[in-house]
Write a structure and sequence with these properties.
Number of domains: 2
Helix content: 55-70%
Protein name: DNA-binding protein
Organism: Rhizobium binae
Length: 87
């Protein structure tokens, strides 16, 4: 499905879907295309909702992710600013 359909499927705006892809909250497009796999999107949505289990995640990293108080958007902005050399 295309970006517009994928965003609609997730119930979010196209720009939000693009941000989620950029921040790895959603899977990237199928290589060589501008299409997304519905099952890959479902898996990411399950992960976001807590239905997906990631047995490989370090318990400390999981705790930090869940308890940092930093939203995904705040994290994305902070990491972007760090890459740009801003403080």
């Amino acid at each position: 499905m295309g970006r517009k359909d994928a965003a609609t499927y997730c119930g979010i705006a196209e720009s939000t879907f693009s941000l989620w892809v950029a921040t790895h909250k959603m899977p990237p497009a199928i290589p060589g295309t501008r299409k997304w796999d519905r099952r890959a999107i479902d898996a990411k949505l399950d992960e976001i909702s807590g239905l997906g289990v990631n047995d490989n995640e370090d318990p400390y990293e999981k705790w930090m992710r869940e308890n940092s108080g930093e939203t995904d958007l705040q994290k994305w902005r902070r990491e972007r600013d760090e890459r740009r050399g801003k403080k």
